[in-house]
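Dock 4'-deoxy-4'-aminopyridoxal-5'-phosphate; give full complex structure.
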Amino acid sequence: TVLRAEHIWLDGKLMKWDEGNVHVMTHALHYGLGVFEGIRAYKTHDGRLAVFRLREHIRRLLDSAHIIMLQIPYSEDELVEATVDLLRKQKQQFANGAYLRPVAFMGDGAMGLGAVNPTRVGITAWDWGAYLGDKGIKEGIRAKVSSFTRNHVNVNMVRGKITGQYVNSILAKREAVLAGYDEAILLDISGFVAEASGENIFLVNKKGVIKTPPLSSPVLDGITRDTVLKLLRDAGHTTIEEVTVTRDALYIANEVFFTGTAAEITPVREVDNRQIGDGKPGPISKYVQDTYFRVVRGQEARYADWLTYV
Ligand code: PMP
């Protein structure tokens, strides 16, 4: 399906979708110097529209830009407001929720790696269902450990969500899908589990210990990862470890699940053709998924601060 909405926000202005174009000489198109975010807005239980952890996403966008020394000519508040404005303008179309994509990149002007051109900033919203499929989010997906390695932390700037870095993710994703799997799991250069092509990863082992690779490994500091850790700790789970994970620990885990704004909480029912647990989403995965959906829909008063109503 072709993506389409009524409006976009580009360089400070709301405009018609078709007007949101850039030149083929856009520097970032050639060299990948850009940053982006993926954010979701949900229809809340009382019929309103709320963006989940908007400010944290905008802050990460600004941090990503800082890392690659990309000047963004808008403040955090301005970008938060622009995102809300874009949704407000299209409230009818997105009454059931939306996926939001702020992107900032080096525009056209000079060419070459030493060029410094004005930064372009766009925000788009569109309808995006379950990223790994409706069946996947309910029943779990099949993942494959990739032949592609996550870049070393001094090669990729892993605290940043940087456009050019996603070639590595795309290579892994395509390889997995072409081989008949739903998603790729990437290892770091030492062979330890890092993350999926666009999600962080969690496992629950046979002793009930919940594990996820630490932020010192080449993984994005996922906002959903952070949300899930908080939800689990607040629910009284004390056996949560941010530790190095080996690929065979995934094979013998009771549960594996992915976390991400697009993928939300997606259970993994198979890794490298080894069934995980009994091949169905386990109790912790289900608890996390249910709670996450209650939180984003405004049904958990305790986490009301995470919602920005449109
Ligand atoms: N890792 C990668 C490589 C990603 O692209 C994403 C999606 N932004 C994530 C993890 C999950 O991050 P978040 O929960 O903030 O969406």
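Observed: The helical segments are 27-31, 54-67, 76-89, 134-139, 166-178, 223-234, 247-251, 283-296.
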